[in-house]
Amino acid sequence: xxxxxxxxKKLFVIPEGCIYLDGNSLxxxxxxxxxxxxDVVEGQWGKMLITGWNKAGWMQQPIDFxxxxxxxxxxxxxxxxxxxxxxxxxxxALASALELRPERKTILSDIGNFPSDIYIAEGLIKSLGKxxxxxxxxxxxxxxxxxxxxxxxxLTEVDYRTGRMHDMASLNKLAxxxxxxxxxxxxxxxxxxxxxxxxxxxxxxxxxxxxxxxxGPGAPAFIYIAPQHANTIRPAISGWLGHAEPFAFEPYYxxxxxxxxxxxxxxxxxxxAALDAxxxxxxxxxxxxxxxxxxxxxxxxxxxxxxxCQMLVLASPKDAKLRGSQVSFxxxxxxxxxxxxxxxxxxxxxxxPDIMRFGFAPLYIDEKDVLAAxxxxxxxxxxxxxxxxxxxxKDKVT
Length: 398
Ligand SMILES: *Cc1c(COP(=O)(O)O)cnc(C)c1O
Prior knowledge:
The chain is α/β, with parallel strands linked by helices. The chain has 2 domains: about 5-30 and about 285-390, Aspartate Aminotransferase, domain 1; about 55-280, Type I PLP-dependent aspartate aminotransferase-like (Major domain) (Aspartate Aminotransferase, domain 2, 3-Layer(aba) Sandwich), CATH 3.40.640. It is about 40% helix and about 15% strand. The strands form 4 sheets. It has a 7-stranded mixed sheet, with helices on both faces. The protein has a 4-stranded antiparallel sheet with strand order 11-12-15-14, with helices on one face. A two-stranded antiparallel ribbon has the order 1-3. Helix 2 runs antiparallel to helix 11, helix 4 (about 60-70) runs parallel beside helix 11 and helix 12 packs parallel to helix 14. The longest helix is centred in the last third of the chain and has 22 residues, at about 285-310. The structure holds pyridoxal-5'-phosphate (PLP). Pyridoxal-5'-phosphate binds next to helix 5 and helix 6.
């Protein structure tokens, strides 16, 4: 059955007069999240109190949600779990992966990777104190640097600035050919593009649920471990809920089975109510259809902007096969230009030093929105509406 995008659009709260092209940073509110969150707070927490852990199934949720996300990215059943934040999941995945290649000391990544992923790696290296090094190279030089010193190839599939997409299948193969393992960050992939972790042989993957998956600010992250590693890896953060029997309260740690060991502590039940509502929508989605629509929308956007805004320089790959679900442009006064667009109802965002970034989520963005957004962006650019002091004053969050 094919997806009715006109119907899915009605499932979200999009403020009047707003064209929301920033779902790659924070997805909009699914309408049903309002009642679902209220029900979890009033009906479950309020009435069940502590019995909710069993009665409402709170304790099992991280695995159940993991399976629903897993379907979207081709994970094997019961090999993905939800919890904590993405930065913490990066730490867990990288630490476990490094231990599987103890004789090697290099983590290979690219300079387009998201800073938090790199900072986490730096911090982990310091704590381990075993002489690990992170080698950050331009994305096109990864293959050249994949050698037998590399323990882990750690990459974000879709570059948060430019939307450039790595070829996960071929990089996995090249990494495995030299005996390295892979850790993929799917922050800009899950709910945006087709991913098939099982088919391409990814070892570890992590991602968040508040971007394209629309689960709300601060929603929990997820981690995937391939079956061949799931029962052998040691979790670097060994919390009680990753223990084989949390409620045996044993004095020493014994890891839980498979992905259960990547759980750490008490799950965020209230935040998970919004995730549940978001996943009710995703349960109906086939990623192949969504991706086709996303390519149509981004192609259209690039074509119209390039026709009307010569001062904007495309930062994203023009070829849709090499691009995620966002489109970015270089413009020196990009910050002010984005502020001007926002004041006229087109919400995108700015990433230093000069990137104007627009995300496209077919669940609630259609051709009409794209054309209307292009008309507004074109007006802002051609009439220099951005050239006002008020638009140049930087806020804390860009
Ligand atoms: C958004 C994003 C993060 C953010 O991590 P949090 O712990 O959720 O704040 C990390 N890595 C990448 C690649 C991202 O795009």
